[in-house]
Amino acid sequence: MATIDTTEADFAPTIESNDIVLVDFWASWCGPCRMFAPTYEAASAKHPDVVFAKVDTEAEQRLAAAAGISSIPTLMAFREGVLVFSQPGALPAAGLEQVITAVKGLDMAEVHAELARQQAEQPA
């Protein structure tokens, strides 16, 4: 699967309707973003079971702000609608592969149970 451009309008539906979604927050003027793009594209071809989304932070400034993006590129990974990874900086191919493998290997029952525990501990 090729990467898909994601906007504020389709960001939430993309995350909610797919099991695993990686999101690359980038900008055309960013050198490290341009260096990471071919690595990200190659990984998208290798993992057709994962959605590889891209958010242009210049065109989607409100979405980038809502996501707390302060440095680009930033890679986020969502599994079952839950943010499970977020890291600024361009990853090498091996590093991106490690992230994908780790996200695929998560025990989501455990993740959801931990989220429920954290929410229960929040003051009302």
From TrEMBL:
| Keyword entries, A-Z | Disulfide bond
GO: which molecular function terms?
A: protein-disulfide reductase activity
InterPro entries given in the database record = Thioredoxin, Thioredoxin-like_sf, Thioredoxin_CS, Thioredoxin_domain
- For this protein, the parts annotated as crossing the membrane are none
Q: Do you know which SUPFAM superfamilies this protein is assigned to?
A: Thioredoxin-like
Q: Which residues form the Thioredoxin domain?
A: 1-105
The record's section on NCBIfam families has:
thioredoxin (TIGR01068)
Name it: Thioredoxin
